[in-house]
UniProtKB/TrEMBL annotation:
<feature type="domain" description="POTRA">
    <location>
        <begin position="39"/>
        <end position="106"/>
    </location>
</feature>
<comment type="similarity">
    <text>Belongs to the BamA family.</text>
</comment>
<feature type="signal peptide">
    <location>
        <begin position="1"/>
        <end position="38"/>
    </location>
</feature>
<dbReference type="GO" id="GO:0009279">
    <property type="term" value="C:cell outer membrane"/>
</dbReference>
<dbReference type="Pfam" id="PF07244">
    <property type="entry name" value="POTRA"/>
</dbReference>
<comment type="function">
    <text>Part of the outer membrane protein assembly complex, which is involved in assembly and insertion of beta-barrel proteins into the outer membrane.</text>
</comment>
<keyword id="KW-0732">Signal</keyword>
<keyword id="KW-0472">Membrane</keyword>
<dbReference type="InterPro" id="IPR034746">
    <property type="entry name" value="POTRA"/>
</dbReference>
<keyword id="KW-0812">Transmembrane</keyword>
<keyword id="KW-1134">Transmembrane beta strand</keyword>
<keyword id="KW-0677">Repeat</keyword>
<keyword id="KW-0998">Cell outer membrane</keyword>
<comment type="subunit">
    <text>Part of the Bam complex.</text>
</comment>
<dbReference type="Pfam" id="PF01103">
    <property type="entry name" value="Omp85"/>
</dbReference>
<feature type="domain" description="POTRA">
    <location>
        <begin position="360"/>
        <end position="433"/>
    </location>
</feature>
<dbReference type="InterPro" id="IPR010827">
    <property type="entry name" value="BamA/TamA_POTRA"/>
</dbReference>
Length: 781
């Protein structure tokens, strides 16, 4: 748009010209309120245009030849022409009976070129700028695009980027726009400080937020970027942290970053006010709906008198009460908590009021900020659609689901008045973040055939093509092993909240006396039952190919051999190819606060694997595992996890169990013993066991001295397990109790949770194979 002063001069000049030439032409112009028109345009003359044709410009003026017009019409004509964004200057004057429209056209953008950019790709920068090829040029647009490019670099930690625009004419009113970019050094975060915190140390609070101090591994994590959107998300994380731990008066006074230009490093400071810590006082329900008895609904409430105040527990109580009341037919009922603070006793009594509520409907759902993620990926997380009854509970639940996707830095849901009093517009604002990962991991594992150095490379995308799909390609191996895997998951199969996916895998391993190669695939489905409980079903078909090394089987029925192997192992290996066709059924219960950094909650999983629907193997295998997480000390971030589990396997249909169908020891059963180093033994070989039970207790804590941004934690633990049972006769079952204690170091690394353990067996058998030191990568669950 034209500057106001320039616009005013153009309109004034047009009015003045009309006033002066009027007497000469004999047309009397009356500017009183009673005058309807001031002149008649016998013809309209368009000048200065090169690309826009005359008739298009005349149409924009709204004045036609032979039409009467006045100063107001001239004013609107000028506004309309400026409003097209096609012209840098506009003048409308009368000369005799001719209305003269003079315009100066903006140049057309021929090409947009980026030079010097390496850390940000051309496509990324082109998506950020407004001036595009075949569009019109404006200086204001150019200035905005320079800032947009700077913002792109700021989000990847290069705040000192220099952007110099150049405009080059190529003829015929066309120009090239060239952005010369000096990317500069990567901006780092030197310190993150908190002002006003007394209950929790800076170290503990730094663990809560996603922004981290720069360290030697920042090039892997990329979490040391100063970004305003991330800072807002960190503020919300701090609020939740305090609100869920009794600090109902918590406030963030300010959060900002100060750049040290000399060092190119930020000092990030959060100034907070913790307030007092409260416990829940009296809990009651007040219902104004005649058929809804508040006393009967108290069982739905999570908040309990005497517990520390928790906003999350209040939210969960509201959800549970709303669902219960809606189930009784009151879909518009509203549940609102009312807190009554007792400052002296530091308690908050909560009254949940249940009212019928106004009949309000969702007119429209607007999604904003999703440049990459498709609208439907966001919409489907809400159990609401246009025309549905508005329900704040469903809105909050949808917001939680969006946050759990880990696609966004922040999610905010608000409402505005719709076109009618009973209509509301839901506005969902999101700030996207990177969802792709390329990782290179290395390690040294001990125990089993895969012991020794190993490496793994993987490419993962959690929001494939913005469709919310998960895809992962991985490959790796060690000195005597190779493995490859492709995984894909569609979280909303056939538009339903049912996940569907597949895995294709191939692995080879050189054992001491024989080689194995496993090739197969899995098709799997997941169905949520409640917010915490889900069911899984899968089908796996795989082929295990065994090959003996430089030895022979002298009796195929008994497995007698010259390999120094147990006859039972030799019998199974001698078959060559084993085909396994198995169906898996599972149930998972999960209330853990964070899968990457668990501190509180329960996690349980039970699984039944049934093989024998075709193939060579016929067995059923039942496993169960439960974990309880609790934070022992808030300030020092001491976390406890207790684990119990067990399993049983047996054959069915008259078939025999193979040694490869049995359980074998691992660090998830008991530490301090080798992989497959305990249980039934024959000819010096551990065969595996039919049943096991185990339990462990572990306390983790931040590693002293090391920055918390590195993600290291220490651990002390105690494990106990009992294993036994064998389908083979004449072998030493070697069952009974084992126990160990130890210490460890955990690292939430970019290529998966990594743990190094040193365990000392306290109770063991003479034939057990001890392994005090272990190192491996794997899930906590």
């Amino acid at each position: 748009m034209m500057a106001p002063s320039k616009f005013t001069r153009a309109v004034s000049a047009a009015a003045l010209t009309v006033g002066l030439v009027g007497p000469v032409t004999g047309a009397a112009f009356l500017f009183s309120a009673d005058a309807a028109f001031a002149a008649t345009a016998s013809r309209i003359d368009v000048r200065g245009n090169q690309r826009v044709d005359d008739q298009t410009i005349i149409n924009y003026t709204g004045i036609r030849p032979g039409q009467n017009y006045g100063p107001a019409d001239v004013d609107e004509a000028v506004k309309s022409l400026y409003g097209t964004g096609l012209f840098s200057d506009v003048s409308v004057t009368q000369r005799g009976g001719t209305l003269v429209v003079e315009v100066s056209e903006y140049a057309t953008v021929n090409a947009v070129i980026f030079r010097g950019n390496k850390k940000a790709k051309d496509q990324q920068l082109a998506a950020a700028v407004q001036l595009q090829p075949r569009g019109t040029f404006s200086q204001a647009g150019l200035d905005q695009d320079v800032e947009a490019i700077r913002d792109v670099y700021s989000r990847i930690g290069r705040s000192d980027v220099s952007v110099t625009p150049q405009v080059s004419e190529v003829g015929n009113g066309r120009i090239n726009i060239i952005y010369d970019i000096q990317e500069g050094d990567r901006t780092k975060i030197d310190r993150i400080e908190f002002v006003g915190n007394n209950a929790y140390s800076d170290r503990r609070l730094r663990d809560v937020i996603s922004t981290k101090r720069s360290n030697i591994l920042s090039f892997l994590f990329r979490n040391d970027v100063y970004d305003q959107a991330r800072l807002r998300a960190d503020e919300e994380a701090l609020r939740r942290f305090y609100y869920n731990r009794g600090y109902a008066d918590f406030q963030i006074i300010s959060s900002d970053g100060v750049l040290n230009d000399a060092e190119n490093e930020y000092l990030v400071t959060f100034t907070i006010s913790e307030g007092e810590r409260y416990r829940f006082g009296d809990i009651s329900i007040d219902s104004t709906i005649p058929d809804v008895n508040g006393a009967d609904l108290l069982r739905e409430v999570d908040t309990e008198q005497g517990d520390y105040y928790s906003a999350l527990e209040v939210e969960n109580s509201i959800l549970a009460l709303s669902e219960s009341v809606a189930g009784q037919g009151y879909v518009f009922a509203q549940v609102n908590p009312r807190g009554d603070r007792d400052i002296a006793n530091r308690t908050i009594s909560v009254v949940y009021t249940i009212d019928e509520g106004p009949r309000t409907y969702v007119e429209r759902i607007e999604i904003r900020g999703n440049d990459r993620t498709r609208d439907y990926v966001i919409r489907r997380e809400f159990d609401l659609a246009e025309g549905d009854a508005f329900n704040q509970v469903l809105v909050q639940r949808g917001k939680r689901r969006l946050e759990a996707l880990k696609f966004f830095e922040s999610v905010n849901v608000s409402t505005t008045q719709g076109s009618q009093p009973d209509q509301v517009v839901m506005v969902v604002d999101v700030v996207e973040k990177s969802t792709g990962e390329f990782t290179i991991g290395g390690g040294y594992s001990t125990g089993g055939a895969n012991s020794g150095p190993s490496v793994e490379l993987s490419v993962t995308e959690r929001n494939f093509l913005g469709r919310g799909q998960f895809i992962r390609l991985a490959g790796g191996g060690g000195k005597k092993s190779r493995n490859y895997r492709i995984s894909f998951t569609e979280p909303y199969f056939l538009g339903r909240r049912i996940s569907a996916g597949f895995d294709l895998f191939r692995s080879t391993t050189d054992q001491k006396k024989y080689d194995t190669a496993t090739t197969g695939g899995t098709v799997r489905f997941g169905l949520p039952i409640t917010e915490a409980l889900s069911a899984q079903i899968g089908y796996t078909y795989k082929v295990d190919d065994y090959d003996l090394d430089d030895c022979t089987i002298t009796n195929s029925s008994t497995g007698a051999n010259t390999c120094g192997l147990s006859n039972f192992i030799a019998r199974d290996v001698s078959k060559g190819d084993w085909h396994t066709s198995a169906v898996t059924l599972g149930l998972t219960f999960n209330t853990v606060d964070s899968l990457s950094k668990p501190r509180e909650g329960l996690y349980g999983k039970t699984e039944l694997e049934l093989a024998g629907l075709g193939g060579d193997a016929s067995y059923y295998k039942l496993t169960a595992r439960g974990q309880y997480y609790a934070l022992l000390n808030q300030e020092y971030d001491l976390a406890f996890v207790g684990t119990v589990g067990g399993g049983y396997v047996d054959s069915w249909g008259g078939e025999d169990l193979r040694t490869f169908d049995l359980f074998r020891n691992s660090n998830k059963i008991i530490r301090g013993f080798e992989h497959n180093g305990i249980g039934p033994i024959d000819s010096g070989d551990h065969l595996g066991f039919q049943a096991y039970a185990h339990a462990s207790a572990e306390v983790t804590f931040p590693m002293p001295v090391l920055p918390e941004s590195l993600g290291f934690r220490g651990a002390v633990f105690s494990d106990v397990a009992t294993v036994g049972g064998t389908p083979f006769s004449g072998v030493d079952e070697s069952d009974g109790l084992r126990a160990s204690i130890g210490v460890g170091i955990q690292w939430d690394s970019p290529f998966g949770p990594l743990q190094v353990n040193y365990a000392e067996p306290l109770v063991k058998k003479d034939e057990d194979e001890v392994q005090r030191f272990s190192f491996g990568i794997g899930s906590k669950f």
